[in-house]
Protein 1
Amino acid sequence: MAVLVNENTRLLVQGITGREGRFHTKLMLDYGTKVVAGVTPGKGGSKVYGIPVYDSIEEALNEHPEVNTSIIFVPARFASDAVLEAIDAGIELVVVITEHIPVHETLRFTRYAKYKGTMIVGPNTPGVISPGLAKVGIMPEKVFKRGNIGLISRSGTLTYEIAYAISKAGLGVSTSIGIGGDPVIGLDFVEAARLFLEDRETNALVIIGEIGGDAEERFASFLAEGEFDKPVVAFIAGKTAPPGKRMGHAGAIISTSGGTAAEKIKALREVGVKIAKTPSEIPQILFRILK
């Protein structure tokens, strides 16, 4: 088994003819991901690396009904329409790479996705990878080695650093999910953790959090319920960030009412999560808890 993406993934690339879409389509194909179609309005009938391009998702699905996953490389001002089109087409999983989508638009399509039964990853996500099986995203695959550690992260670059540390230590990753760094996202820590709970290949979970919002605190409340019985290690970025200043991600901003690294660490520690002070400490903690 693998979480979200695997050898059965059949991928549609929305925005395939753009610079980013074209570049990452090649890398996903090279990794072995089954990319079967692309969509760019006005570019129907063309091909990108042998992948047929269609003007709409409806046309693409008429020819490729096996599509079960879509990845969005559409510019921010058109991205929400692209996501809504994918939801209306009944695609099971939509990975939204695009950043700078207005929050009210993200609220609209994430709520609509829940109503229609589509899972949204992102926006502003590096994507999802199940090492050796499939990559739906923009992450550098060389830092990921197959193993038994589930990874859920709000940060792209920290995901790569920690995946590399885990791989170098001889462990490896079952699936890595970038949930995205925006204030409003689709799949969150709790929903992603439930997926890993059902995955027999995942023996432990690493979460990478950061300042801002209450995603980590909500995850701690979920763990307190006792449903998740696999060990969890966490690293929280932004310990030295000043209140009121955005640090990198749109969602990484401490308000006067909370969102600090200290508050997140306290909430997680109280429910038994092992906290790493640095990314390089994570493999050491994993070895200890997996003995």
Note: The chain is about 35% helix and 20% strand.
Protein 2
Amino acid sequence: MTSTQTTSKDLIEQLNLEPHLEGGYFCRTFASGHTINDRAAMSSIFYLLTKTNPIGHLHRNRSDILHFWQHGSPIHYTLVAPDGSLSEHVMGPDLAAGQQLQMLVPGGYWKASELHDGDHGLISEAVCPGFDFEDHHLATAEQIQREFPQHWPALKPLVSG
């Protein structure tokens, strides 16, 4: 099967992806045996958005996360920095159109991802120090309206629930 024929269903099966609490699908692919303060020094995942599950809802992590575009359609990201500045980025293969193959989201930034077109978009993430669900915070409408009222119209569709 060539990559142009690969579907989201194929990727979910072949990569052993499971539903993620923020939306989309994921599978942890690596956790370092080296530790920092009793946690993996680094971890990585595959993360997939699909046309039937197209939003990775707004959330924040403590660790830095380096994203790598892998396959499918571009994925659109909305980031909110701790100072309240909002930025948008697109991960995908069209470098001439300004798309990125890699993107760093520093710890403490709010992040949401969206698949606008196509069957799927697949990325990988490397997290340092390694991901721990204790460090993951899914945004609530009340929190985002209180902290970033100026961005609420843009962020509302990206907040879970």
Note: The chain has one domain: 3-158.
Protein 3
Amino acid sequence: MNILTFDIEEWFHILDNEATSTETHWANFEVRIHQNMDRIHNLLNQTNQKATFFCIGWIARKYPEIIKQINDNGHEIASHSDMHQLAYKQSKKAFEDDVEKSIKHLEDIIGKKVISYRAPGFSVKEENKWVFEILMKFGIEIDCSIFPAKRAHGGFENFGAAVPCWIDVEGMRIKEFPINLSTFLGKSLIFSGGGYFRLLPYHIIKRLTKNSDYVMTYFHPRDFDPTQPMVPGLNYIRKLKSYYGLENALRKLEKLIKEEHFIDLKTADTQVDWTKAKVLKI
């Protein structure tokens, strides 16, 4: 199964960067979310494609019309936190407050329960796996926060699965849809979203997608904005990761959607035989 998801945040919501770390910083940057969302909606409308949108509460408060349009177009709304901070840098109380606010703001707009969550930057690691208890406390049934490999910020290298599975926390269970891993030239490779998708040539992405039983994509509005300004404070490597391939990313995604079958997370959940899924106790 190939799952199509988008993380809805502004172009300046870059993690682990001092110049963009707080809401005070964000006020200094231009608004580009509307034009970037238009690109995504146009693509999905033209291809008759449904997707799951992981949205931050900050966007919901400032631009509720963004959330309303996603919902009105028949797409699934999920939480991507409230203030887009790395989960492992938050205390339990700060994380709990953030999750609660995010869910409330989204539900107030769409009038339905939010049941899925993704941490910013896939920032659930061994050291903060307590997040799952908090997510379940607020009615989250599906998590998509696990990146089962090394990563600059985040990464749960020893998680034990790169396919849909159960996470068991003292007898309570939550469904996990982690990022998928593929093998290319003998090495594990992530290809299905963000900078990885922009950096890799299309023929490699197509081959890996076709050869994978499970693909979890993740895209951001900024991934399709080739004229966005340069975010201050980034070193050379982060500039490369953040800006390479912006010009062609939308065309690559359009081609992939047309050539491969994609579904939203809600549909994927119904296609998994959860009675046979692996259970990971943490």
Note: The radius of gyration is 18 Å.
